[in-house]
């Protein structure tokens, strides 16, 4: 699919905008490290606004949740918040499932206190068990827990929206 110029309008200022393909930092997800690879975006030359065109959004969100649960680094507060929202749970319900106070969950989500290694694995296990994955995917996800390490830099998650696949960079 090639570039389409002049057929779109900016959602911010209403001026003509260009549609191009590029990687897009998916901040709307609530994550600072999620990138959608090679998607169409509508870019305004006047005000600089960029609007992504995200194919199969609900499936992309599910793949992103799967990538977070399987990532080889400890969960961050924004990861926990994303996963909780993906599970359609409020803070009180999610905290109850984890056996912690909702204040503790809030402090995790806002990076006010660190998430311990056992709590990290419990959060991942809860999401795996209550999420849409098959039994084989759940088992595979749980086996990845041994690969979690705190050595090194945080990872960036790249989502291939076309093939519904993820990778870490």
Task: Explain how this protein is built.
The structure is a single chain. With 169 residues, the chain is of the alpha+beta class. The protein folds into 2 domains: 4-53, N-terminal domain of TfIIb; 57-168, Orthogonal Bundle (434 Repressor (Amino-terminal Domain)). It is built from 6 helices and 6 strands; from the N terminus they run ββββααααααββ. The protein has helices at 57-70, 77-86, 91-98, 102-109, 117-130, 135-143; strands at 4-9, 16-25, 34-44, 50-53, 157-160, 165-168. Helix 1 (57-70) crosses helix 2. The model is unreliable at 1-6 (pLDDT under 50).
Overall, the morphology is: elongated
How does the helix and strand content classify structurally? Answer: alpha+beta
Mean pLDDT across the residues is 92
Quickly give the CATH architecture of the largest domain: Orthogonal Bundle
| CATH topology heading of the largest domain | 434 Repressor (Amino-terminal Domain)
Distance between the termini: 26 Å
Number of strands: 6
The major sheet is characterized as: 6 strands, mixed
CATH class membership of the largest domain:
Mainly Alpha
What count of domains describes the coordinates?
A: 2
* Unreliable sequence segments: 1-6
Helix content: 25-40%
**Helical stretch tally:** 6
Instruction: Using the CA coordinates, give the radius of gyration.
Output: 18 Å
- In terms of quaternary structure, the protein is single chain
Order of helices and strands: EEEEHHHHHHEE
Classify the beta-strand content into a percent band: 15-25%
């Amino acid at each position: 699919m090639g570039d389409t110029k002049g057929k779109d309008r900016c959602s911010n200022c209403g001026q003509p905008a260009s549609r191009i393909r590029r990687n897009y930092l998916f901040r709307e997800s609530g994550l600072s490290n999620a990138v959608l690879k090679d998607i169409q975006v509508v870019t305004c030359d006047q005000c600089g606004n960029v609007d992504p065109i995200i194919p199969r959004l609900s499936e992309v969100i599910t793949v992103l949740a799967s990538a977070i649960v399987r990532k080889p680094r400890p969960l961050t507060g924004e990861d926990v918040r994303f996963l909780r929202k993906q599970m359609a749970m409020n803070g009180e319900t999610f905290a109850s499932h984890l056996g912690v106070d909702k204040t503790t969950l809030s402090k995790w989500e806002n990076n006010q206190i660190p998430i311990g290694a056992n709590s990290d694995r419990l959060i991942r296990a809860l999401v795996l068990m209550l999420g849409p994955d098959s039994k084989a995917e759940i088992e595979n996800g749980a086996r990845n827990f041994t690969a979690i390490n705190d050595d090194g830099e945080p990872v960036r998650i790249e989502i291939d929206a076309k093939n519904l696949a993820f990778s870490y960079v």
